Amino acid sequence: MIYSMTAFSRYEIIKNNCNIIWQLRSVNHKYLEISINLPDQIKHLEQVISKKIKKNIFRGKLDCNLYIYCIEKNQDHILINKILINQLVKLILKIKNKIDFGIINFIDLLKWPGVVIKQNVNNINEALILKHFECTLDKLLEFRLFEGEELRKIVEKKLFSINLELNKLSANLITYLKEYRKKLNNKIREINVKYDTNRLEQEIAIIISKTDINEEIDRISIHIKRFFDILNSERLVGMKLNFILQEMIRESNTIASKAININIIKSAIEIKILTEQIREQIQNIE
Question: What does the UniProt keyword field contain (predicted)?
Answer without folding.
Answer: Endonuclease, Hydrolase, Nuclease
